[in-house]
Amino acid sequence: MASDIYSETIALAALFQSAAQIQRVARFGAVDEHAIAPLMRALVITSPNTIEDVYAPKRVIPGLNQLLTSLYPKEATQPKNAELIKIAFSIINLEANLEKQSMVFAQLDKEVDKLRSDVLLLHPDYEDAADNVLVDYDIIKMYSKIYSNLISPNFPKLIIYGEESYLRRTEFQEMIRALLLAGIRASLLWHQVGGKRYSLMFRYKDIIERARQIISQQSI
């Protein structure tokens, strides 16, 4: 895949969309199938040729809008955005540490390949399925299990703030872990297409402008 600001922006949008949905589930116990579905689908796309094979631009509009608010310096200091940005950067750091642990990273690669086979066995048309299929609870549990078995034991746990009554519920815990895995997928893709932490520090205006252009193109 080519390294360009367009691909970086799409991958970042998916990352911030993951972070926003983690925050939504933890705070309100709310599951937005439309926003979560494309993030779950991306987990089984293992041999993409383009960024759009992984994330259709129209499906990451929520993440693109989140970028517009999160990357503006004044907006980023707002409590809800500051917390969301912290989640996103925690996922970026986790994914970077994951890449440094070659054995764990290699095992994750194997697990994802197996995951794809298992998901397609359950839903052969999963890549083109409707949102309710993409967020099938049995599949969410598969994603959650990979995070629990491979990521959680090998890296410091991420602190997710929210309502304790929601954070205690098994189905929301599993959804959050699945979204964390989806965030790792987006962060990895962001790095693969040339994304660096300095991109967010020194190129945020370019990213914001590209996000605006993509949103505008999708609304035509």
From TrEMBL:
Primary location: cytoplasm
Keywords from the named record: Cell membrane, Cytoplasm, Membrane
Annotated compartments: Cytoplasm
One Gene Ontology cellular component annotation held by this UniProt entry: cytoplasm
Name of the protein this chain belongs to: DUF489 family protein
Organism expressing this protein natively: Candidatus Anaerobiospirillum pullistercoris
